[in-house]
Amino acid sequence: MSTSTMRLAIVGAGPAGIYAADLLSKAERDFEVEIDLFEQLPAPYGLVRYGVSPDHPRIKGIINALRDVLDSGIIRYFGNVRYGEDITLADLKKHYHAVIFSTGAIRDAGLDVPGIDAAGSYGAAEFVSWFDGHPDVPRTWPLEAREVGVIGNGNVALDISRMLIKHADDLLPTEIPTNVYEGLKANPIEELHLFGRRGPKYVKFTPLELRELGEVRDVDMVIDERDFDREDAYADEVLSKNKQVLVMTRIMDKWRQDQREREANGERASRRLHMHFWSKPVEVVVEDGRVAGLKIERTAPDGNGGVIDTGEFEVIPMQSLYRAIGYFGSPLDEIPFDEQRGVIPNEQGRVQDLAGERIPGVYATGWIKRGPIGLIGHTKSDAMETLECLLEDRDSWWQPEVPQAEAIPAMLHAREVPYTTIDGWHRLDEHELGLGAAEGRTRIKVVPRDEMTRIARGE
Ligand code: NAP
Question: Which domains does the chain have, with CATH numbers?
Answer without folding.
Answer: 5-106+329-419 (3.40.50.720), 110-327 (3.50.50.60)
